[in-house]
Amino acid sequence: MADKVVYLDNNATTRVAEEVFEEMKPYLTENYGNASSMHKFGGRLRHKIDHARQQAAALLGCEPDEIIFTSGGTESDTTALRGVLERSGQKQHLITTRVEHPAVRTTAKHLQKHGYRLTELPVDRYGRLDLDQLTKALTEDTALVSIMFANNETGVIFPIDKIARIVKSKEALFHTDAVQAIGKVPVNLKDTPIDLLSISGHKLHAPKGVGILYVRRGTSVAPLLVGGHQEFGMRAGTENIAGIVALGKACELAQQNLAEENQRVRALRDRLEKELLQKCPDARVNGDIEARLPNTANISFEYVEGEAILLLLDQVGIAASSGSACTSGSLEPSHVLRAMGIPFTAVHGSIRFSLSRYTTDKEIDCVIEHTPGIVKRLRELSPFGPDKDAAPAAPSDRAPQLTIE
Ligand code: PLP
User: Is there an atom of ligand 1 within 6 Å of 66 CB?
Assistant: First the structure.
């Protein structure tokens, strides 16, 4: 069953690379000690953590002691936002965008409820930010700006270098959620003045439950988890040695393969988009076509429900994601596509296909073969359409909203 799936949901999670699994295995079985132990059985594992820190630092262009291992993207994002604001003294203002992942958005809203001032920057119809609005939003009171590197739903990449320089010129700290960017596009912390950056292992072929928060030397951040002295006192808890070893290896592989893989993946993605747009009338690609992750295609098939497409794709063994979520009888479209002002008829029918280094030509052929027929069939059944009277329900902000990872 597992080997039959055409897996195009790699922005949700990725398969653990064989090389990564081989590397981590001994640290689950024979080398299961605690790296903080005095005895050799545990203590000798410390150098494996140091090695993983070096592998991650080499990928990012930073120093090993700027790498803090965490449990994943959500913890890294939460630590960045809460940890900076806890130490920000008089500065009480936080800036983010309307298209952040819930790990940032919900934390920011939580902080707002606790008295911090929050500005959420809008995006245009291509998912792009207006940097003048960022400049205007920055005040002497701004402690932190948190803007994602690449969007998980559309793949749109923000101009992080320019953003970081604007933020630093106003003496605020800059955090970027790079969970979807790392391993897909080059990121170099030597050239870009980023203060904090989040990574999640399971998005780059390491297992779930491990991540990184990069913290530039000299940046004041309070730990989220307190207790033991692990991770330079920045993240208490017995180290997840196997996960850390795995993430180190995944970073090394990403560094070795990034350029070559990206070209191949981009070509597959472009072929998929081109053929689907040719074969399906009333379909469009969402997001900036140029500044985009090479692996992500977010396509709206007007006048059909994304869930219905997903279900039928699933029946033929294709796994993807939709930009709307069916929750308790109501359809709530994605906050990202809504922020971009995409019409409801298009948001409802949006599907995200996300590829990886394991995606093959044959898999893309399979999606191209099945999707147009599925969309055609659903359109025939749909009450919506250019020549039909019904219109999909407008979203209600009160209804619960699921999001795609
Ligand atoms: N940030 C972004 C952009 C993501 O896409 C995700 C996961 O989908 C996260 C944060 C959360 O990462 P994790 O699943 O490791 O907690």
Answer: no
CA distance 197 to 385: 43
Give domain 6-13+259-381's CATH architecture: Alpha-Beta Complex (3.90)
Domain range annotation of the chain:
6-13+259-381, 18-256
Answer whether 405 contacts ligand 1 (Cβ < 6 A).
Answer: yes
Vertex 289, ends 284 and 291: CA angle to 5°?
A: 150
Check if 201 has its Cβ closer than 6 Å to any atom of ligand 1: no
Dihedral angle at the C-alpha atoms of 17, 184, 124, 140, nearest 10 degrees? Answer: 100
Q: How far, in Å, from the CA of 313 to the mean position of ligand 1? A: 24
Choice from 16, 76, 179, 296 to test ligand 1 binding pocket (greatest atom count within 8 A of CB): 179
Q: What is the CATH number of domain 18-256?
A: 3.40.640.10
Catalytic residue IDs = 326
* Listed residue (15, 290, 252, 319) closest to 154, CA to CA: 290
Give the closest residue (by CA) to ligand 1 atom 13.
Answer: 73
Q: What is the pTM of this model?
A: 0.94
CB atoms within 10 A of CB 40: 9
pLDDT along the chain (405 residues), means of 10: 82 97 97 92 93 98 98 98 97 98 97 98 98 98 98 98 98 98 96 97 98 98 97 97 98 95 97 98 96 97 94 97 56 86 91 97 98 96 70 46 51
